[in-house]
């Protein structure tokens, strides 16, 4: 059975299809934030499901697909920044 | 009467007053528990102790601990039927005498201690509070304790949302205008991790105090003692140089990492909206968890009024506004819970023109200026606790050109729903003063309309006689 993940994105152009990307996704079983190296696509029926949410939480209608190549350490999601907003 | 020392003791007190029910059927931590809390808030129902949580045998959650004035009265050991104004007056009376906490060697929150590889935040039923939230918010009713890097005796307590990233990391909302943000920026400038302790389910007085805004240099622990009318017992943490309320259900110790961000949120917030987007925000690396036996995880579900924030803001921020305007000719102040803490209604004795501006300047010049974009000033014949009277004044005394005074480029924060995305990002807000007082240069006998009410249009003696003998008319 396909695993289900989700990620938050407003502009789909920032989620390149068919290329290896490092993404913060959530496992929808326990909602942990996990870092993955993965390939995503808007079409296809193989691979796991990747639900997409807008950055304020609204769910998009149609899920994408995700092939997780490797789960990375959580620290891979660290963004170096001093900005506080 | 002994103070309510912890959250389990609060539940016992609510049970005694009939303000909590026990739900024994299975409830899912994923949305169902949050939805129950939300429905309680929207209907004003009793709080709910959930004792059968899916995937977490033996665990307990408490939905909507203090989301109405009745439960707040119980928490302050007052009669549950005490009216809001009397609760707020009593709060003000108590906080005039801050009481420093006492350090004790041991406490219930030390009944279980977990460190190192055994740390697992998901051992507790962290709720998915709203559908579409960025994660499971384990801390929605809590105190975040932190110490200033330079002024070491300044220990801040605040209630800032905490999202579970995984077993050992938490996201912590840290805004620059809040005390924790100011402290964090100092640690960050020194490139030092900032020790924090997140005390979930503390005694209700500590939780209430953590939402007050006494300002930099003042410790909310002293305010908590004042509300409780006795010192709050604190115990030392295991891995950070901080002290925490000894009766907390769960204490998470760790460090807010400097110059590091991980995407956090979004979250349905106290404004009644999910406003701020998923964005890179500070992250806590957990170093220890201590907890009471059979701990209760409280869920305060922020959203449309009335929730815990709305009630506490009306009390604690109400006190802060009263202090800010204390030297002005003010009759009464209220922060209506329905306005989510965004508005102060201030009744004034209008003895000089411009008093509304004076009041607004005093509020916006205080620390609340960053949190309260609306100030409504009414004459002293309007009760600020009575929405009907406020609305009536709003749509009869408001002059569309003369009564609205907008200020631009004021400090604000990213949770204000009315700001644009850009303004939210940079905390660029606008404020509005609504002046509902009659102009001072209007002659009272010629220009000022006479209010057609029991109080305003009948001889006082006759009005009192009719009202006092109301039942004699057959009503």
State the main characteristics:
heterodimer; A: 85 residues; 0% helix; B: Pnp Oxidase, Chain A; UbiD C-terminal domain-like; nine-stranded antiparallel sheet; five-stranded mixed sheet; globular
Q: Biggest sheet of chain B: strands, sense, closure?
A: 9 strands, antiparallel
> Which stretches of chain B are poorly predicted, pLDDT < 50 over at least 5 residues?
none
Helical run tally of chain B:
12
Which word captures the global form of chain A?
A: globular
The coarse silhouette of chain B is: globular
Class by SSE composition of chain A: mainly beta
Classify the fold: give the CATH topology of the largest domain in chain B.
Answer: Pnp Oxidase, Chain A
CA-based gyration radius of chain B: 23 Å
Number of strands of chain B: 23
What oligomeric state do these chains adopt?
Answer: heterodimer
Which spans of chain A of ≥5 residues are poorly predicted at pLDDT below 50? none
- What is the succession of H and E elements of chain A? EEEEEE
Q: Would you identify the CATH H-level superfamily of the largest domain in chain B? A: Electron Transport, Fmn-binding Protein, Chain A
What is the first-to-last residue Cα distance of chain A? 40 Å
Greatest interface by residues involved: A-B, 25 and 42 residues
How much of the polypeptide of chain A forms β-strand, as a percent range?
over 45%
Class inferred from helices and paired strands of chain B: alpha+beta
Main β-sheet of chain A: number of strands, strand sense, barrel status? 5 strands, mixed, barrel
Question: Would you give an account of this structure?
Answer:
The complex is a heterodimer of chains A (85) and B (475). Chain A is an all-beta fold and 85 residues long. Chain A has one domain (4-76). Chain A is 0% helix and 46% strand. Chain A contains no helices and six strands. Chain A has strands spanning 4-8, 20-27, 33-41, 48-53, 64-72, 79-80. Chain A has a five-stranded mixed beta barrel. The radius of gyration of chain A is 13 Å and the shape is globular. The termini of chain A are far apart. Chain B contains twelve helices and 23 strands. The mean pLDDT of chain B is 96. Chain B has two domains: 7-299, Pnp Oxidase, Chain A (Roll), CATH 2.30.110; 325-436, UbiD C-terminal domain-like, CATH 3.40.1670. At the A-B interface, strand 6 of A face helix 5 and strand 15 of B. Strand 6 (79-80) of chain A pairs antiparallel with strand 15 (260-264) of chain B, so a sheet runs across the interface.
């Amino acid at each position: 059975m396909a695993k289900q993940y989700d990620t938050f994105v407003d502009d789909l152009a920032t989620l390149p299809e068919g290329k290896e990307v490092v993404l913060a996704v959530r496992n929808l079983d326990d909602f942990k934030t996990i870092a993955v190296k993965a390939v995503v696509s808007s079409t296809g029926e193989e691979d796991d499901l990747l639900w997409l949410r807008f950055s304020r939480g609204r769910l998009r209608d149609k899920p994408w697909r995700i092939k997780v190549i490797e789960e990375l350490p959580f620290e891979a999601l660290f963004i170096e920044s001093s900005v506080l907003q | 009467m002994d103070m309510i020392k912890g959250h389990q003791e609060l539940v016992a007190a609510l049970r005694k007053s009939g303000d909590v029910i026990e739900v024994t059927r299975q409830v899912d931590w994923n949305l169902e528990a949050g939805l129950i809390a939300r429905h309680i808030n929207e209907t004003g129902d009793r709080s709910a102790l959930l004792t059968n949580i899916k995937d977490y045998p033996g665990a307990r959650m408490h939905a909507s601990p203090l989301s109405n004035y009745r439960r707040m009265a119980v928490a302050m050991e007052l009669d549950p039927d005490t009216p809001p104004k009397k609760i707020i007056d009593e709060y003000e009376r108590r906080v005039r005498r801050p009481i420093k906490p006492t350090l004790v060697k041991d406490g219930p929150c030390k009944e279980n201690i977990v460190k190192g590889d055994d740390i697992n935040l998901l051992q507790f039923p962290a709720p998915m509070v709203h559908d579409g939230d960025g994660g499971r918010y384990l801390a929605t009713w809590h105190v975040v304790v932190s110490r200033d890097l330079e002024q070491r005796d300044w220990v801040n307590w605040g209630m800032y949302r905490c999202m579970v990233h995984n077993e050992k990391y938490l996201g912590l909302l840290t805004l620059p205008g809040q005390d924790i943000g100011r402290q964090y920026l100092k640690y960050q400038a020194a490139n030092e991790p900032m020790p924090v302790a997140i005390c979930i389910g503390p005694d209700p007085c500590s939780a209430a105090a953590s939402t007050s805004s006494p300002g930099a240099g003042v410790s909310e622990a002293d305010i908590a003692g004042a509300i409780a009318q006795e010192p709050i017992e604190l115990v030392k943490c295991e891995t950070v140089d901080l002290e925490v309320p000894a009766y907390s259900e769960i204490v998470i110790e760790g460090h807010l990492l400097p110059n590091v961000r991980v995407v956090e949120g979004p979250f349905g917030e106290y404004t009644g909206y999910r406003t701020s987007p998923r964005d890179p925000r500070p992250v806590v690396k957990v170093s220890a968890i201590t907890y009471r036996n059979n701990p209760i995880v409280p869920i305060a579900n922020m959203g449309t009024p009335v929730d815990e924030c709305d009630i506490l803001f009306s009390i604690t921020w109400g006190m802060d506004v009263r202090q800010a305007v204390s030297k002005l000719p003010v009759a009464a102040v209220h922060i209506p819970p329905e306005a989510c803490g965004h508005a102060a209604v201030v009744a004034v004795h209008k003895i000089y023109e411009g008093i509304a501006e004076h009041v607004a300047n005093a509020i916006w010049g205080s620390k609340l200026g960053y949190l309260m974009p609306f100030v409504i000033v009414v004459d002293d014949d309007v009760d600020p606790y009575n929405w009907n009277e406020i609305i009536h004044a709003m749509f009869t005394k408001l002059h569309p050109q003369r009564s609205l005074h907008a200020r631009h480029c004021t400090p604000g924060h990213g949770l204000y729903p009315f700001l644009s995305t850009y303004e939210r990002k940079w905390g660029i807000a606008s404020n509005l003063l609504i002046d509902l007082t009659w102009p001072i240069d209007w002659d009272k006998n010629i220009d000022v309309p006479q209010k057609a009410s029991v109080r305003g249009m009948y001889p006082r003696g006759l009005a009192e006689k009719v009202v006092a003998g109301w039942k004699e008319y057959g009503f």
